Amino acid sequence: MHYTSIENIHKVIDPLFLDELKKEYAAICEMKQFRPRRRKLGAFQDKLASLAFFDPACGSGNFLTETYLSLRKLENDLMRRMVAKDETEGEAIVAEIKVHIGQFYGIEINDFAVSVAKTALWIAESQMMNATESITGATDDFLPLKTNAAIVEGNALRVDWKSVAPPEKISYVMGNPPLSISA
Fold first, then answer.
1. Is residue 41 one of the residues assigned to a domain?
2. pLDDT given at position 2
């Protein structure tokens, strides 16, 4: 297990994918017409939910957890805009959470670190669900745990990565440099 600071994680994930996602989101938010903007927001949310991330030496899961938090914060802001009522175009809609921890895959050799990584993602999921509750007003029972992060115990040099994260699903491979590439 090696701790990587949030600041250093963002030095990897921001230029790898987050900056581009934020730029795309900002362009959608600048759209003036309500219905086309809402439609684009929905499509962008689907895009966020379609991305998958793999850290082949994930340690305690800091890269995966910070990526999840960053995507969910973006999704929460998006949902806030989607549920907003527009005076000229009609009523607000109900938005649902689409980004989930099942989009995150990792391999770690240390069994304790695997447990920490899974727990960190569950805690992050709980925190973000609480934040979303204030937007949608809907409550979701977090317990018992229904989601599962695909963090596998094993040696990343020996485990067939395809058995953990099917290559056709993975959008980004990331971790401590130099393990950060676009798929």
1. yes
2. 60
